[in-house]
Amino acid sequence: MSKRKGFTLWLTGLSGAGKTTLAGQIFNELRNQGLLVEILDGDEVRANLSKGLGFSKEDRDTNIRRIGYVSRLLSRNGIAVITAAISPYRDIRNEVRQSIENDGSQFIEVYVKCPIDVLAKRDVKGLYKKALAGEIDSFTGVSDPYQEPVDPEIVVETDRESIEQSVDTIISELNRRRLLTQVTESSASSNVVPLSSESVSEVRT
Questions:
Q1: Which of 46, 58, 70, 93 is least surrounded by Cβ atoms within 10 Å, i.e. has the fewest?
Q2: Angle 120-61-157 (CA atoms, 0-180°, nearest 5)?
Q3: Annotation marks residue 87 as catalytic
């Protein structure tokens, strides 16, 4: 029996861009192909592993390092890991990449791109509008920085593409890397329940 190699698919982008929605769809695709899959969502990690952290750069970096650490442990044990976290700072994303790749797993960065004006229109709670008006502090992409990936493996533009098109782009890259073609004698299904749809409450991850 050949052991399937794990990997980390790291979805980064502003709140409301579609990371959580994409993660859920990709989860289903990978599980249907017999992979063991886990989703690590930024909000879920904050609520469970990073409870008590604030939103200073140091605390944000600590949260992302924790997501990266769990991703590394899972992926080196044959799990396909999908993260959905804003992860606004480039240096920490690169630090996580290096840690995972040094451990022998692939790290695939996916920039889930969407303009602020489109995000503001999608935001039924009006948080982007308030942030743009200066009424909310530490709002990623408005009053707090978001550093776009310089050379991500994948870019999907959710203001121009359907969810299905974005998922196809991501799955095609995983196939190109031969991450979905390894054969095992038996494939156990993951017991992870896909997380809830994208929420603008994730603005500070």
A1: 58
A2: 35
A3: yes
The enclosing H or E element of 112 equals: strand 106-113
Q: How confident is the model at residue 195 (pLDDT cuts 50, 70, 90)?
A: very low
Return the CATH number of the domain spanning residue range 7-114+145-185.
3.40.50.300
- Average pLDDT of the residues in 98-125: 95
Which two tokens mark 4? 């399937």
Rg (CA), the chain: 17
59 and 65 Cβ atoms separated by less than 8 Å: no
Least confident of 3-7, 103-107, 127-131, 164-168: 3-7
Using the structure block, give the residue that is written with the tokens 């909000």.
43
In one-letter notation, the amino acid at residue 109 is E
By C-alpha distance, which of 68, 69, 72, 79 is closest to 31? Answer: 79
Q: How many other C-beta atoms are found inside a 10 Å radius of the C-beta of residue 152?
A: 17
Q: Which of 15, 71, 75, 87 is catalytic?
A: 87
Contacts 24+ apart (CB under 8 A), 124-128: 125/200, 127/200, 127/203, 128/16, 128/200
